[in-house]
Amino acid sequence: MEYSRLLRPLPLFLIFLFVAVAVTDLVQKLTEEPPPPPEIAGAAIPRFVAMEPVIDFRADGGDPAIEFLPIPELAQGQWSARKPQGVWARGAAADLRLELAAGGHRVLILECLPASGKIPVRTFHMTINGIDCGSVELASGWKRYRLVLPEGVVRPGSNRVDLRFPDRDPAARPRRALLIRKLGWFLDDNVGVEVLDDARPVSLDLDAERVTFHRSGILETPVVLDERTDALQMRYRFPSGAGRADVVVEQSKGGGVGLDDAMRATMRPDDKDSGRIRIPLHGRRGPFVIRIRADLEPSGSQLLISSLRLVEEGDPTRRPWAANPPPN
Q1: Phi (first) and psi of residue 6, to 5 degrees
Q2: Which terminus of the chain has fewer CB atoms gathered within 10 Å of its CB, N or C?
Q3: Do residues 51 and 99 touch, judged by C-beta distance below 8 A?
């Protein structure tokens, strides 16, 4: 019996078997959904540090989506708990401290309600960092008061604000002097009391890949990168054609594996009011912080960011974007 005739079809059978296995494997890979890149919207709450903060003292005045800084430190025993209308300064004096990211603020705007009674509170006196900032005559009911501050009284870092109520009735019960709703700090000499009606300094919707800066400040968003992360990319627009923003991606303190150098890019209008940037991340992994600092001048400028996303190598949305412009 000639076995060569039986063995002759064997190589063809093996080739067919190999091709069938390869095709099956390819179909399986094509139908499998690839793992998504890391999300910017995570469990941690982003933080926004306002350059010209408006502090809302109402119990429901916060925003659960963002932690707004600074948060004032109220002297114990001199202030009530936060209430739906604000916080009461109690007694003949009340002090607070707060950490400001910038100094040199020239205007302070206060929205408040003085205590009424047989001897209503009609005056308060303010000092900031031990420097006399003058007295304010109070009207009855809710009003806004604008104080022009001495030059250089507000400094970056810790600031102490002292309020004194010289005409408060010491026998009054409860021991209330002034109900404060909002307190705003501004660099612009020409700002008016209506500025307290403005929207939040930043609007954030990371699920929709959108961020809008209404005023100058720093937005910090924590994110965990992995080795698949290729880049951070976004589009931006300055509607007024003025302003500047710097974007930094850097490792969080105490963690991260990979290159330690921060990665940077700059957004500015230049010849046109819109553009796009891409920050290569080169597969870094570990806990990082995305930090966007917007400096918006003149007052009323905005920065609109869209398509803010992390992409991985091979992402179909990845485009051969032009190199980022060098910072000033």
Answers
A1: -75, -35
A2: N
A3: no
Task: State whether residue 159 is helix, strand or coil.
Answer: strand
How, if at all, do strands 157-164 and 123-128 pair?
Answer: antiparallel
Q: Which of 261, 253, 250, 234 is nearest to 324 (CA)?
A: 234
Q: Cβ atoms within 10 A of the Cβ of 321, count?
A: 13
Pair (192, 212) in one structural domain: no
Q: What is the dihedral of CA 266, 236, 293, 302, to 10 degrees?
A: 130
Distance, in Å, from the CA atom of 124 to the CA atom of 89, rounded to the nearest integer, reads 11
Question: At a CB cut-off of 8 Å and minimum separation 6, what does 141 contact?
Answer: 113
Measured between alpha carbons, how far is 206 from 211 in angstroms, rounded to an integer? 7
pLDDT at 268 over 80: yes
Q: What is the CATH number of the domain that holds 237?
A: 2.60.120.260
Q: Which of 172, 197, 222 is the last residue of a domain?
A: 197
Cβ atoms 69, 47 nearer than 8 A = yes
- Provide φ and ψ at 69, rounded to 5°: -120, 150
127-158 pLDDT tens trace = 999 999 999 999 999 999 999 999 999 999 99
